[in-house]
Structure formats: structure tokens, C-alpha cells
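note to self — DONT lose this again. spent like an hour looking for the file last time. sequence + predicted structure for the chain T wanted, 192 res
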Amino acid sequence: MLKTILHRRSIRRFEQEQIAEDALQDILQAGLYAPSAGGRQGVIFAVCQNQSVNERLGKIKRANSHPHMATETSYVSKEQPSIADDPTITNAFYDAPTVITLFAPKNFLFSVDDCAVAAENMMLVADELGIGSCYIGQGWTAFADPYGQDILRQWNIPHGYYAVMQVLLGYSKEHDAHPASKPRKSHRILRF
């Protein structure tokens, strides 16, 4: 497992080929078996493989996201720019063929934490299977217009739940050029 943790990177350039169904099921199972506060299992995983829906929600998210744009010394990624790095990127889902939105109860103290550990589990299994992934925060911005609200109704998302984040899945366009690990910063572990 440590090898997978050390190998996994965020991928923002995807092939349009859809991931295999058996791989998707393994990734979802990893999310379902993630730790959850009190064992509540409150996270709902909405899997969308509809290209037009994903593109439209990704564009809505981009339009509603206002990140501080990157500078020469402060950026997310030079190798695979994010929407904060490149204002010309119009789809916050980077044209990933599979987008999983993680929904959780609005009124539960540990909703974000439960989604985050589920997302990490899913991204690690995706990497083991040769599938690229990327974690996208502030999931609610993708649904912040009438189209997004209509999608929530179509998906039967329960009242009182909100989109915490998205996990993007797909095969990396750079099959032979997996992003390199950045050197680990020193002095991050304190021992007493």
C-alpha cells in the first residue's frame, strides 16, 4: 500500500475513454469502506459518466469558483495546471469521463472529514488500477445555478445533503509521463 501512496498523483489531463465498470466498482467499494465518524456511513456517491452533464456541471463550477490566480511563486501545478493556474481552463472537471460527487449531511459536524477519507481511499485504489484521479473541493459550486439544482432533483439527492467534493476518474493522457513526486519538505514531523 505504501508504494501506491507514494505513486499516486493528481491527474488533470484525461483521455476520453471511459474507465472499466469492474474498476469503477472496486473504486466505489473503497469509498464505501472508508472510515466514517461514528460508523454513520452518511456519504452518498453520485457517479456521473454522462459527458454532457459532466461538462456542463464542470463549467458551472468553474464559473462559480473564484480562486486567487496563480503567480510565478504561488501555484497549484506547473505540470498539470488547475483552474487557479490557468484562466483559460473552462471546465473545472478537466473533461474527466467519470465524475463522482460526494454528498453528505449539511448538519453533521464530520461530513467533510467523512468525504475526504472516502475520496482518498478511492484515489488510492484508482492508482492501483492504473486510473488517474483528482480531488476537487467545494463541490457545491457545481450545482449553484438552475441547471445544477435540476440535476440534484434528477439524482434524488436527499434534502439536507450537499455536494462536499468531487473525485475525477479517467485514464491519464500522459501514460508514459506520470507526474514526478515533489521533494518532501523537511521539519514537518515533530517528535517529543
